Amino acid sequence: KELDFVKERSPENARLWYLLGLLALNQKNCPEAEKYLKKAEQLDPKFKGEAGYYLGKCSLLEGKNISAQKYFEEVIKSAPETIWAERAKKELEKIPSAKVFQARGDILYQYDSNIVPVPDKDALPEEVSNMEDSRALIWLNLGYYPLLKDQGRLGIKYRFYNNWQFEETELNLQLHQGELEGYYDFNISNLGARTYGSYLYQSAGLGKNYDYYSTTHRANFRFYLIETQTLTTEISYTFENEFFAHPGEEDFNRDNNAHQILIGEHIYLWNGRIDLGIFGKWRSEDAKGKNYDLNNYGASLLVQLLGWKNLSGWLSFDYDWRDFYRSDFDRRDQAYRLSLEIEYDFLKYLGIVAGFNYDSYNSNRDSYDYERQIYSLGIRAKY
């Protein structure tokens, strides 16, 4: 009532509009807050830094990270020696980066206990003599996002992977991947939602000279429903086909089409720093050769540390029950996988990465039983 009284008597009072903006902000009415705070800026430039900071906070309330980032950056630029600039810098550190250009490069050393993999040395192919080996590898990710908005984004990615086996150079692997991806955020009733889509093309080369090995096409669609600040449902569908330079003949032709459905929940803990994901999945592969036709039922547990001080990382556990339902060998498998990666950033764009993978593959056919451990250590640069 007092503010309404001042509005009638002194509508050019900048502090009036500033206080009205704070009142609207506390009522979580962001459109009103933006209108009032911008008017306060226009009437008195001394409110610019303070109003810009609160406009950024308002954008965060609405989930508009890109707008919030722009507001905080403007505060730092227009009011550099103020407490509002300091607060804006702290808020910027919490916001996931939204850059038109993104890049990440890993240089790693890996030890692999079972490079093929097979149950024992007697099962190795003729051109391979060692089950265990080490390798150096590089893994480059480049992204360009020409369309970057609060409600969504659209971009392209290129990834390049190359490893050099120290012993078994016949197993050198090279990958080229191109991907088109994007998402769009919207509301369903009072709940937030996101649709995500991507198409990936991959060409693989194998051996000393990285001769052509296979081509993969993959399309993925995901839907996210945000029930609360701590709970999000994910539903995903993936279609994939893979063609090999030497797929095999007749019943052993492994060229295939695959469908996968995944349903799960993301539970966010510790003020959003930890993402706990629990998923169930079904995958079907239809190959030209019947010995590769597969129904796969599985479950996954994923724990991600999204950022705490200079640490981030993830831990995952996967279980798969696989039924090769048309196989000549009446084959059924159970697969377990435990994976871990930890990253420590010692500089703004540079970090140390360590990882571990353990696979246990159990089958009713002894020739398909194996275990595998992979240890990784290296440097990660990112922008």
Provide an overview of this structure.
The protein is elongated. It has a 14-stranded antiparallel beta barrel. It has 6 helices and 14 strands. With 383 residues, the protein is of the alpha+beta class. A hairpin with a 3-residue loop joins β2 (133-148) and β3. α2 (14-26) runs antiparallel to α3 and α3 (30-43) runs antiparallel to α4.
Briefly, what is this?
The protein has 383 residues and is α+β, with helices and mostly antiparallel strands. The chain has helices at 2-9, 14-26, 30-43, 48-61, 65-78, 83-94; strands spanning 101-112, 133-148, 152-165, 173-188, 191-206, 211-228, 231-244, 256-269, 274-287, 294-308, 311-324, 331-347, 350-363, 370-382.
Give the topology.
Elements: H1 2-9, H2 14-26, H3 30-43, H4 48-61, H5 65-78, H6 83-94, E1 101-112, E2 133-148, E3 152-165, E4 173-188, E5 191-206, E6 211-228, E7 231-244, E8 256-269, E9 274-287, E10 294-308, E11 311-324, E12 331-347, E13 350-363, E14 370-382
Antiparallel strand pairs: 1-2, 1-14, 2-3, 3-4, 4-5, 5-6, 6-7, 7-8, 8-9, 9-10, 10-11, 11-12, 12-13, 13-14
Class of secondary structure makeup: alpha+beta
| Range of helix content | 10-25%
Compute the CA-based radius of gyration.
26 Å
Q: Beta-sheet strand percentage?
A: over 45%
Give the overall pLDDT as a whole number. Answer: 91
Number of helices: 6
Number of strands: 14
Give the H and E element order.
HHHHHHEEEEEEEEEEEEEE
The low-pLDDT segments are none
Q: Main sheet?
A: 14 strands, antiparallel, barrel
* Distance between the ends: 50 Å
Strand order of the largest sheet: 1-2-3-4-5-6-7-8-9-10-11-12-13-14
Oligomer: single chain
Shape assignment: elongated
